[in-house]
Design goal:
Blueprint: E1 2-7, H1 9-15, E2 19-23, H2 30-40, E3 52-55, E4 58-60, E5 71-75
Parallel strand pairs: 1-5
Antiparallel strand pairs: 1-2, 3-4, 3-5
Length: 81
C-alpha cells in the first residue's frame, strides 16, 4: 500500500524534504513505518524514537495499523523558551 508521509521541523531538515511516499505491506503498523523510514532516510534514525506520528488527524501509538491511503505526519518534539 502507498503511504504519504509529511515531515516537519528537524525531521524535514534531516530528510531534505517535507514529503516522502513509501510502499508498505497492507496492515503495516506505525512501528514498521518507523523502521522503513529509518532504512530509507538513515539521517532520521536518531530522532525517529522521539517523533510523534499522526495518521489523519489523530496521534497514534506504534502498534496502530496504518489504513491504506492514509496521510501520515511525523512531528518531532518541540522545545522553546
Amino acid at each position: 500500500m502507498k503511504v504519504d508521509v509529511r515531515l516537519f521541523a528537524v525531521a524535514r531538515d534531516l530528510a531534505g524534504s517535507d514529503f516522502i511516499s513509501l510502499e508498505l505491506p497492507a496492515g503495516s503498523t506505525v512501528a514498521q513505518l518507523r523502521a522503513r523510514l529509518s532504512a530509507e532516510i538513515p539521517a532520521l534514525a536518531g530522532v525517529l524514537p522521539h517523533i510523534l506520528i499522526a495518521v489523519g488527524s489523530d496521534y497514534v501509538r506504534d502498534d496502530a495499523i496504518i489504513p491504506a491511503g492514509s496521510e501520515v505526519a511525523c512531528i518531532p518534539p518541540v522545545s522553546g523558551g
